[in-house]
Amino acid sequence: MEVNISESWPGLMYKQTQPAIALFSVGYSVVFAGTVIGNLIVVVVIGRNRHLWGVTNTFIFNLALSDLLIAFFCIPFTLVNHIFIVDNNRSLNLTTEVKSCKTCSVDKYLLTLTKNVFGDAMCRVKALAQGLSVGASVFTLTSIAADRYVVIVHPHRERLTNNQALWVIFGVWIASAAIMAPQAAVSHEKEILFENQTFDICGEFWPSEASRQGYTAALFVLCYVAPLVAISLLYSKIAAKVWFKPRPGAADGGSRNPVPVGVSACRMRVIRMTITLVVVFATTWMPLYISTLLEDFGNLSPQQQANLHHYVYPTAHLIAYANSFINPLVYGLFTTNFRQHFKQTFRTGSSSRPMSLAMTKLRRGNAHGDVQNGTANSTPMTSLKVNVINGNGNRIKGVVTTVVRNSNIVQETTL
């Protein structure tokens, strides 16, 4: 496998052939643009509509922010790292030289040999920012699943307040920082000597192979297996709750075995979305973790390691980052009410105009009560399906949940 020398960048050599480089560049560019545009839309729509500042949308807002960090701190640096190999003025046949290199540690550095053009400080900052953003995105996805589980499966259970949701988000970032701290600690610029030539590279330099393997296994469990199991269980319970429903009109003493009734289009959308969320999370992150496990535990030959770093890793990273592109589509743009708010926000340029609420349906629990003029009687939680009509006459559907806590009324609009 010949490494190409760029004519426009003298001495700068590439890891792949030009068609492969073009394909990776286009793929990473599309994912970058889609991630930035999609998540910026989510941030703007939620940020400019105060009645959307509920618990669920707070988590979605944080997810969009973490995905934006992935776009700016992960995607460009990863693309550069996967394409450029060395700053050298001689032709390099990587296959021949890898086979001639007998030192395993040098093999690994040679295979990932990429000239660091950003400096040691950016090398350290990049590692921390990448770990934080990826961890925050994964753990926020889990938090959203837990919140949806409580709302749908246990609608009468007390929900988180907005302040409590902010504390959960704070915990998400702290947990991400703690898990990613070892990776950031060993990431720095280092000078590598190979065949009487020195190369400044940015990478992870672990004290031993065992420590690297231990961290890889821990990262796989904490950031993939555990979140995937949690998300799968929570969304499976949500899907079961939506799919199976007590027979309408059944008396308390009669048969109330959950049976599938005529599933409405709305319920089917919820089921499809839950399945989509689990499948997207599992499939987008799986290739990257499998690649990492293969590198650290697979006992690969030098040629296999070269193929892994030059073709498998760039593809696996691209698929993983596509998760940040898909998230706003699943959580926001594919939701009817979000699309309505998107149109309203960007059509008027402002969401501060007066709105009127037209109650279309009132759902109560076992107790009966009224919500009127800011007062409530004996009902701990009341949900109202409403139509929100803005100053332009646009009708936007939503649900206003009123919860009475310590004689105080807490309201949240969910789309």
Describe this entry's structure for a reader.
This protein is α+β, with helices and mostly antiparallel strands. It folds into 2 domains: 12-247 and 261-342, Rhopdopsin 7-helix transmembrane proteins; 353-414, no CATH class. 59% of the residues lie in helices and 16% in strands. It has 11 helices and 12 strands. The chain has helices at residues 18-48, 55-73, 75-83, 94-100, 104-111, 119-153, 162-185, 209-243, 265-297, 302-333, 336-348; strands spanning 12-14, 84-87, 187-194, 197-204, 244-245, 259-260, 356-363, 371-372, 375-376, 381-389, 395-405, 408-414. The chain has a 4-stranded antiparallel β-sheet. Strands 1-2 form a two-stranded antiparallel ribbon. The longest helix is centred in the N-terminal third of the chain and has 35 residues, at 119-153. The model is unreliable at 1-11, 87-111, 349-380 and 404-411 (pLDDT under 50). InterPro entries: GPCR_Rhodpsn, GPCR_Rhodpsn_7TM. Belongs to the G-protein coupled receptor 1 family. Residues 38-331 form the G-protein coupled receptors family 1 profile domain. Its main location: membrane. The chain crosses the membrane at residues 20-47, 59-85, 127-146, 166-186, 215-235, 270-291, 311-334.
Could you provide a short overview of the structure?
The chain is an alpha+beta fold and 415 residues long. 59% of the residues lie in helices and 16% in strands.
